[in-house]
Amino acid sequence: MKVLKCFIPFSLCLLILTGCWDQNELDELSIVMGIGINLDNKGHLIVTYQVVNPTTVAPGLMGEGGGKQPIFTVYESKGKNLMEATRNASKETSRRLFFAHARMLVFSEKLAKKNIYEALDMMSRDPEVRSTIQVLIARNTTPSKILRTFTAIDKVTSDEVTAILNITEQNWGENVQQDINEVLQSIINEGGEPLINGIELTGDKDLAVTSRNYEVGEPARVKLSGMGVFKKGKLKGWLDGPNARGVLWLKGKIKSTVVTVPCNNNKKGYAIEVVRSNTELSASTKGDVPTIDVKVFPETNIAETNCSVNLQDPSEIVKIEKEFNNVIQKEIMKTVKAAQGYNSDILGFGELLYRENPKKWNHMYKKKYNRVFPEIKVQVKVDSRIRRSGIRTSPFLFDKKIENKEEVDSS
Amino acid sequence: MKSYKIDLQQYFILIILFELGSAILVGLGMDAGRDAWIAILFGMVAGMILFSGYYFLYKQFPDLSLTQYVQVLFGKHIGKIFGFCYMLYFLYLAARVLRDFGSLLLSAVFVQTPIIVVNTLMIATIVYVLKLGFEVLVRTGEIFFVLVALLGVILTVLVLSADLMDFNYLLPIFGEGVMPVLKAAFPVTPTFPFGEMVVFTMLLPYLKVKNRNKALKIGLLGMGVSGFVLSTTIAMDIAVLGGHVATHVYFPLLAAVAKINIGEFIQRLDAIVVFTLIIGGFFKVAVFLYVSVKAAQDVFGVKEETSIIGPIGVVVILSSIAIASNYVEHINEGLNIVPDFIHIPFQAVLPALFIIVFLLRKKKLKHFASSSSS
Amino acid sequence: MRNRRKRPVIKTHKKLSELVAEKKAGERSSFQVSSEADDYKSQEKQVKEGELSPSLEFNVSRINKLLGNPTDLIIREFEFELEQKVTATLMYLEEMNDTQLLSEFILEPLMNLSSEKQSSPVPVGHALHYIKQNALALGKVQDVETEEELLEALLAGLSILLIEGNKKGLKLGTTGGKMRNIEEPASEVVIRGPREAFTESIKTNLSLIRRKVKSPDLRVERFEVGEITKTDLAIVYLENIVNPLIVKEIKERIEQVKTDGVLETGQLEEFIQDETVTVFPQVMSTERPDVVVGNLLEGRVGILVNGTPFSLIAPAQFIQFFQSSEDYYMRYDISTFLRILRFSVFIISLIAPSIYIALTTFHQAMIPTTLLFGIAAQREGVPFPAIAEALVMEITFEILREAGIRMPRAVGVAVSIVGALVLGQAAVQAGLVSPAMVIVVGITAVASFAIPSFAVATSARLLRFPLMIISSIFGFYGLTLGLIVIVAHLTSLRSFGVPYLSPFAPIQIQDLKDSLLRYPISHLFKRPVNLAKQNATRTDPYQVKKKREEETTR
After folding, report:
1. What is the pLDDT of residue A10?
2. CATH number at residue B367
């Protein structure tokens, strides 16, 4: 009872004293969904914030607020560093910017070419920004353009982009989700360099920033495009298409993709759908130049055939597997060559070497890794399995063997 | 209230809650990088050795707490000086953990709230619970133990099913050799949290008489389980976040759990972690506070423990603010100064001294020891 | 016989005049009659204070005076034949006795007595004994020796037979009168299970229990509480199971009750509970006999009070309030599910608004993005902060609930229409509250109705408000500390010495099988540890089963 008597007045004091320390009503917050960072000519940061207008996005309330109000609005502010720019934005925002739901962080190519470290630090230090925020680089455009683009399906650009990332990672495998944590970790890894997804704007770029964008038949769209290769915090170049996929093969991050395998002299050949895949890396550190063995074990289905082949014949399947192995092997080797060309260890080889032989790494490779990395020998072995061939047995081309072969060949 | 005895189950739960309390959230042994989880196991073993020492002393004086048997060992006056030192030590620990807890909470959630408010609220709760008696604290512990354990299991399952872990992050084991791990482990990890078992020298006399001979076994079991849980948690954090990120954020667990996103539906589970953080912090501070109350009671001869809980609580609040001017200083003290100059003397040197003195004066004391144990 | 009522009334009037005369003369003491009437004088000396006198007239006038000449006191004088003609008086309070019983089994046989039938003449002094043995065809017949006893019996609804020349009287168990029938329970409805509920009569209630337990170990002990009302109270327990210390404690506490009157067990509960400063019920109340018996079998004690259908069960554990008698009548899987559901519902009704407040004002980061948009859009334009919104809505709901309970049924519908449509819908459309808040309040409300025990639902209702306030100031931090305080408070509670939160704190593994979970009956072969210390094992269903199997195989 005595305790109560002491604490009642005390807690009453607390009640009165606590005005609004960390309390924010929802209608006092601007929910930032995407952040863009660019560099102006003086070297100051231009920060773009994509802020959602919840009344227009919320399900069920469409009739009320929608129509006149835009779905989102974009603020832009400048500052010597990120924090300054953020607070500077308060000159034009009517509510506190709230970053906890930000989904993507877009750097401009200009900034990426100069240095991304400082921007990454602020983003990972702020307790409000979540570590799951996706990092991207605006390719051939500016972050501000990307963030201003109106999209058709997911109404907010940032939502759309993260959704695209997810879908393409699941289905195509040339891009992989990279949140800020993973970027930081890949920088810190022994000899490691980050690899950041690129995003570009296609179609009518002037139309993109108007809400009419989704009313026209041929809207401007945001599109993922390659992955940026970094070296010491600076963007060096891009990996596109199969090169980008090679990285994922190496890292074992392929979830599903489609690979075209030629048959006989038909380049279109088969479309092989990879269902799952496993990658094993091992390194031998004998001698000055390490060797890395890559073993890839994809499991696949035949999804399309443009060849006249008896798919019920096991030996034919083995043949296709071999062809497929070749294609993948070449793809991976090309990627390795590209990375070694940039002299940027985006593949995590340094980390692998460190795991295999920490002492040798520390004493021999670490200091002269710049020279070691382009020299690393990579041996790729692909051991694929074709499990199924859809719901058909042999292609109908096979039944009418002779006539169709010519036709297919000529096409 | 005074005659309340705890049974083995409660003793075990108390150890686990106490050990895991704040340690599970803050990165432990992070200087060892990706080997942090091994550093914890080293620390655990060292802590177990210390605990065996405490148990030896307890066995000689099964009815007395540390601050009481030093008075037997050294006589009333010197003993009281030792007791007073220990009281200050416990108070300091209470203040320290409270400060840790407050700052961590502040940096994660309540950026603008003054730390004194957060700390005061916590102490107010603790004082209320302790005034209801040690028994209530222990039983409350039982309830929350089950709850926290359940949440722990759920979180683990979620982390596993979200496919976030990359065990390559944990390799190579002993990449830099054993020395850096040992360096990271000693003296910090044995002293925090395992060496803090020194508070149980004050609590062991509360064990039921029939359970006394199992005190060591269950104590070590409790330390083993909590060491294992701590170690796997840190390993999990590293596997999810990567060695660097895990060792460079204040709450690796919070960061790891934040990454869970299953089907856009099960996500943002930070609330669960914050909840465990508060429960853990509560129990740790409460145990320290209670132990300092008991020590003060012995040193100053206070009859009713309830009458000094409040004042000591206020002391803890104030000292938690005063011990460091900012968080970096506080952490720095915690990692560099406190283990060497405070933890080691109180957790290892002094108990060792007590054991030696006891062995020397065994014959003289024998009479007393036998009469007290009967 | 029909007009028998008239005579006594006249008689009473006669007595009244005498009493008035007495009063004029002034009384010396409350127990001594004035000496005005000469023929009393000699008797007065013989009669000790409070004892009955052999004089019929004296006794009757005394009683009449002590009761203040009530109009419902029927005094019937009649004669019957023994050795000689004997005058007797039958007294009873009208409407508390069964008149048919009185006439058929008392007046009729007595008036038909004739000396011819008697083998040997019975002297007047032995009259009481004789008629008890031979004439009164009634079960409950007891001697009354003192005035006090006589009055008590009379007020308790017994009838009194006094015979001229005897210093004793007889009290006759002719209690009757109008009582409510046994009906279905109103507050504890089950789908499967007995359909009977206690009534206001303690006798009926005891009979309901007796009928269910045919054990010789069933003990019924009677008490009287209330200095003025003298309410009948009975505790029931199974002597071979119950912990005698708990029975002793309960008896002591009941004996210590000093109050004017006990009209309901709720009043008694406040006197005998351990801790007053708490919102949690420490004694369970039920109107179902099967619940009482089930608890007796676990080693608890039932307390019945005359005049209310609600009986008490002590000691009570927190978890009991989430159990329903039906849990044992249904399959264990669904029972377990329902118990967990009920407990979750309690938690929801306790903290749902607090979580809403904490999330929307402090931890917006923890709300999934899409949901956040939804809530944020609804909050747009709401003039109040979330806490004010929540408090207003919760209090509005409490008002509606209170109004709904007290209203006559017909008006109740109107109240709910006004509440649901006008207040809910209109407030949302006017933009005063956000729809999300209405949903939260709605969930809270429905959740609180799903808790089987009204008492615990009330605790949740009360605790909701402080939790809402603290979480509006400190978010989840405040909420968690609030919950710690609540749990600590719960663990500090005891019900008649038994920890309130057992079997959770302290953990009792065996008892956990019948707590939030309900194991199959065959696993529940232990009684609760704290309650049934002396006889901890129930009839082991395994052994019964085994026996049966052995017999069939043979």
Report:
1. 64
2. 1.10.4160.10
